[in-house]
Amino acid sequence: MASATITSKGQITIPQEIRDYLNLDTGSKVDFVIDENGAVKLIPLQVSIQTLSGFLHRPGMKSATLEEMEVAIQESSSDWT
Question: Cβ(30)–Cβ(19) under 8 Å?
Answer without folding.
Answer: no
